[in-house]
Each structure stands twice: as C-alpha cells, then as structure tokens.
Amino acid sequence: MPEGSGAIYVASWMAADGGNCYQLMEAPDRAALDGGIANWSDLVDFVVIEVKGSAEFWASWRAALTNMMLAENCCSVRRGRW
Q: What is the pTM of this model?
C-alpha cells in the first residue's frame, strides 16, 4: 500500500495449491486500500471484503436488531424480557 495511506499489512495465507493469496489488511476505510489496489491491478485481481472482530460484529448486530424491534414495535415486553 502506498505510504501514508493508513493501510497496514497484518498477515497473509496461501491456498494449499498456491492459486490464491489471502491478505489481512487494517485500514481506516476502503479508500485507504484503493491506491495499492490500483498499483497492482494490471497483475492481480482483488476482492475486498470488510470484516469485523466477533465481539464488534455481534455488538453491532444486537444493537441494530434491538433498534429495529423498537422502531417497529414488534415485540411486547413481558417480565422485563423481550
């Protein structure tokens, strides 16, 4: 990645047959990766997938579900539980 982009290389894995390389990068946003992708796009096809740690994912999922349920008034409260 270009210097100063904010993207940091974390780790990589190779498929057993050598056909694919999977890299874990840390970046503040997708734009921070775009310069490096552009530099290599004539040689490599990139697929970028945003990931979150498990705790962060489930916390945001729970919050989103709770907000949706409250907004739609779809659940009644019984004995202090959903």
A: 0.62
